[in-house]
């Protein structure tokens, strides 16, 4: 397995922190991309054990022409993490479309040699495939397509109000802020650790070049998450909404993860294990924040 430097964009994000860990834990040198020095310093502090392997480059605006020109110098390949998922958007074009599309375009334009490029988000993906078709670059790309991503937070959380959208939604189910189980709007789910693993495997697997992978463990509902929380954490029962325990999932749609399982060899973490690990993570964060108050 090659140990050339890997550039990881979005390294300070929920997904990016786990992708970072996947590569660093195997001794791979990583150059992370952060939008500010303070963000980079926080990640470096969290990964002090990998000080000799981890460095950062600051890119304040990923949509700027040539944004990644310096970042990609002397790297073997690139892992491009899509902009964070959020539902609190005032301007769809400015806050979602432009960062996703232009960020993807700039990293592709900057990269010259052999690389494997991993990303997500539909518009960013179509931009990447169009680039490859038109420019015929010397590198290959692989695309990782996750649905809603939950799981433990690996990056440092100072305040629980800092949680990304999906983590904040999960935490709201166990922090006592909800009296009712919310309706499920997106039914497919995956654990963030499996998403990170898929990025690493696709990066190193030659046959993954030119492929796209749907990474999902299957269909879920918020009712199922609440049921598991109440079963596994009796101390949280007064904080978790009851809803309709055991309510079956309606006939919405199916997802096929066969390709990710067979070609990437991923044995997806179960919904129950994901809920247990995520809840434990939040309880630990609560204790740490309370102890430092």
Task: Give the helix proportion (percent range).
Answer: 25-40%
Return the CATH architecture of the largest domain: 3-Layer(aba) Sandwich
Q: What structural category characterises the helix and strand content?
A: alpha/beta
Mean pLDDT: 85
- Helix and strand pattern: EHEHEEHEHEEEHEHEEHHH
Please report the number of helical segments.
9
Number of domains: 2
Largest sheet: 6 strands, parallel
> Percent of residues in beta strands?
5-15%
Q: Strand order across the biggest sheet? A: 3-2-1-4-5-6
Radius of gyration: 19 Å
Alpha-carbon distance between the two ends: 45 Å
**In CATH's first tier, which class of the largest domain applies?**
Alpha Beta
Gross morphology is: globular
What is the CATH third-level topology name of the largest domain? Rossmann fold
Low-confidence stretches: 85-103, 111-117
Task: Compose a concise summary of this entry.
With 293 residues, the chain is α/β, with parallel strands linked by helices. 39% of the residues lie in helices and 12% in strands. The protein is built from 9 helices and 11 strands.
Structure, described:
With 293 residues, the protein is of the alpha/beta class. It folds into two domains: 1-141, Rossmann fold; 148-188 and 217-293, NAD(P)-binding Rossmann-like Domain (Rossmann fold, 3-Layer(aba) Sandwich). The chain is built from nine helices and eleven strands. The chain has helices spanning 14-24, 37-46, 92-110, 122-135, 165-172, 192-204, 222-232, 258-263, 271-292, and strands at residues 6-8, 30-34, 54-58, 77-79, 116-118, 140-141, 143-145, 148-150, 188-191, 212-214, 218-219. Strand 2 (30-34), helix 2 (37-46) and strand 3 (54-58) form a beta-alpha-beta unit. Helix 1 crosses helix 6.
């Amino acid at each position: 397995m090659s140990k050339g430097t890997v550039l990881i964009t979005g390294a300070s994000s929920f997904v990016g922190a786990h992708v970072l860990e996947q590569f660093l834990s195997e001794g791979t040198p990583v150059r992370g991309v952060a939008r500010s020095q303070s963000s980079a310093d926080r990640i470096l502090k969290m990964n002090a054990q990998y000080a000799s392997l981890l460095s950062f480059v600051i890119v304040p605006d990923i949509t700027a022409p040539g944004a990644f020109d310096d970042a990609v110098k002397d790297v073997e390949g690139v892992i491009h993490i899509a902009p964070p998922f959020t539902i609190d958007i005032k301007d769809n074009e400015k806050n979602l479309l432009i960062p996703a599309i232009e960020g993807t375009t700039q990293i592709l334009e900057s990269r010259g040699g052999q690389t494997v490029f991993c990303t997500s988000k539909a518009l960013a993906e179509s931009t990447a495939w169009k680039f490859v078709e038109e420019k015929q670059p010397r590198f290959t790309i692989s695309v990782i397509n996750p649905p809603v991503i939950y799981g433990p937070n690996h990056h440092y959380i100072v305040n629980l109000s800092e949680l990304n959208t999906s983590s904040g939604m999960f935490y709201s189910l166990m922090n006592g802020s909800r009296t009712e189980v919310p309706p499920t709007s997106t039914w497919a789910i995956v654990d963030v650790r499996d998403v990170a693993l898929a990025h690493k495997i696709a990066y190193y697997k030659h046959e993954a070049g030119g492929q796209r992978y749907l990474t999902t463990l299957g269909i879920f509902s918020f009712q199922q998450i609440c049921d598991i929380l109440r079963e596994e954490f009796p101390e949280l029962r007064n904080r978790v909404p009851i809803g309709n325990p055991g309510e079956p999932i309606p006939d919405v749609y199916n997802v096929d993860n066969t390709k990710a399982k067979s070609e990437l060899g991923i044995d997806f973490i179960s919904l129950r294990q994901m809920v247990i690990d995520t809840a434990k993570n939040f309880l630990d964060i609560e204790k740490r924040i309370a102890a430092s108050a």
